[in-house]
Amino acid sequence: MSMLRSRPDFFDRLKKVTLPFNDGILETLRAGDLISLSGTLFTGRDQTHRLLFDLLDQGKELPVDLKGQLLYYVGPSPARPGRVIGAAGPTTSYRMDVYTPRLLDLGLKATMGKGARSSEVRESMKKNSAIYLATFGGAGAFLSKCIVEAELIAFPDAGPEALFRFTVKNFPAVVINDVTGRDYYQEIVSASSL
Amino acid sequence: MREIKSASIIEAVRQMAMEAAWDLEPDILEALLKARDRESSALASDVLELLLINADIASREKIPVCQDTGVAVVFVTLGQDVRIVGDLMAAIQEGVRLGYDEGYLRKSVCDPITRVNTGTNTPAVIHVELVPGERLHISILPKGCGSENMSGLTMLPPSAGLEGVKDYVVDLVVKAGPNPCPPVIVGVGMGGTFEKAALLAKKSLLRPLGQPNPRQDVAQLEQEILERINDAGRGVHGLGGNNTSLGVHIELFPAHIASLPVAVNIQCHAHRYKEIDL
Asked: Which residue of A7, B41, B97, B201 pairs with B187 in a disulfide if CB–CB is 3.0 to 4.6 A?
């Protein structure tokens, strides 16, 4: 496919955001903004949440401090020898909806996956001035190139559902829910015919 | 009587499991290119471009197109005059195990109650159909569950008619929104029984993308449902535009006089499959 560029046009329009979030940056982001993330984030999906909640329910300390952090819903494929990580695109976020408000109350500032969030999560984001990002489902090979380091932090027995710390560089995402309560998916639905 | 050794089945399945994860088939790539060229939204067009770039990286570097390398769904068409030397079902499971291990594919299969991962991506889901003759055909469809979870089945009354079928399918796909990674491929099974409709919906995904059902009224129904889904404007990844679906495939089976089962199996744009005649 020689007609392909190395990256699509919209990569030139991405607003750069560093992780963990600097004070005040979240307030400047709006639903529909295309952003590029650089810095560190944590990963987790279904079983990761269940294991984190087991610790919380037992009054134990979490293996990471989520305050001010971004949690990326991903279960990567294994890295080949010499590579940082395998494919690492987003999983569908609604399955984490039941867990998210409590984590936002603990200081988590952003989540990233794909697909819409529940009204409870949207309310909790407003209350906690947190945001939700979507990245590109089915682009796991491309996105793996934006991950420069992957460190296993907790739950190694959970396989792809272990908790990792990723260091990312120019990782692309779309702001879906911003701190003002706007929801980009809802706006697309309202603008379309059905 | 033709003899086929289980070792050759293991090897074929192993190879297909890996290649399915890395290499999208030409019909899918062509459909994504066409979608990009007719896309009304600039952002969606860029995302389609990203998906094509992703497929290119995956194929060149042998990285899965998507980290969800799925539950391996395997369809076997077995001639009655073939004698398998060894255990057919065990050979398929072993091929899946080896392919997912050696290909650095994600192991996504777990106990439904404890959620403990089996660690091997087995068991695969295997469907065997017996046919006359000496043929052995194996297809593998690694099925990601972002899209599988958005699937559905309804037992309509016959009075619901075609309008009822269209409304059910369109509504299910539109309401799924960005969750199943649109642009999706929509597999529909109509008729039969509860489980027959579901199996037909899955099997319809094996048809080359965009190839219409040979029955003209069914082909017309496929086209009409596709247009209604795309007119709804949810678009690529739910970001708007006119490419929510790349194709609708419908398979039929005669139904009971009291019944009109309709099953919808949604497949993401990273539609991976391989097939082989042994």
From this structure: B201
| Amino acid in the structure at residue B204 | S
Domain that holds residue B83: 2-20+65-143
Q: Is residue B191 part of a domain?
A: yes
pLDDT, tens digit, for every residue of B3-37? 999 999 999 999 999 999 999 999 999 999 999 99
CB contact under 8 A, A10 and B43: yes
Residue B163: how many CB atoms within 10 A of its CB?
A: 8
Residues B125 and B204 in one domain: no
What are the chain A neighbours of B122 within 8 Å (beta carbons)? Answer: none
B236 in the same domain as B157: yes
What is the CB neighbour count within 10 angstroms for residue B181? 31
The reply to whether B135 and B156 lie within a common domain is no
Domain termination site, one of B110, B143, B176: B143
The residue among B87, B121, B143 that closes a domain is: B143
Tens-place pLDDT, residues A20-43: 998 899 999 999 999 999 999 999
Residues B225 and B266 in one domain: yes
Please give the C-alpha separations between residue A42 and each of A167, B34, B146, in angstroms, as whole numbers. 9, 37, 21
- Give residue-wise pLDDT tens across range A146-171: 999 999 999 999 999 999 999 999 99
Give pTM, 2 decimals.
Answer: 0.95
Which candidate, B127, B105, B109, places its Cα nearest to that of B118?
A: B109
- For B223-246, write each residue's pLDDT tens digit: 999 999 999 999 999 999 999 999
| Distance between CA atoms of residues B124 and B143, nearest Å | 10
Q: Do A142 and B57 make contact, defined as CB atoms within 8 angstroms?
A: yes
Query: Which residues on A lie below 8 Å from B47 (Cβ)?
Result: 8, 136
What is the distance between the alpha carbons of residues A128 and A135, in angstroms, rounded to a whole number? 22
Structure tokens at B109: 């299969």
Domain extent listing, chain A: 33-191
Of B49, B53, B66, nearest to A89 by CB-CB distance is B66
Residue A174 carries which side chain, given as an amino acid letter? Answer: V
Residues B15 and B133 in one domain: yes
- Going A85 to A86 to A88 to A92, the CA torsion angle's sign is negative
Distance CA A76, CA B105 (A): 9
CA–CA min distance A18, chain B (Å): 23
- Tell me which architecture the domain covering A33-191 has in CATH: Alpha-Beta Barrel (3.20)
C-beta separation of A73 from A93 below 8 A: yes
Q: Do B233 and A193 touch (CB under 8 A)?
A: yes
The 10s digit of each residue's pLDDT in B132-166 is: 999 999 999 999 999 999 999 999 999 999 999 99
Q: How many domains is chain B partitioned into structurally?
A: 2
Count interface pairs A-B at CB distance under 8 A: 170
Q: Is residue B232 part of a domain?
A: yes
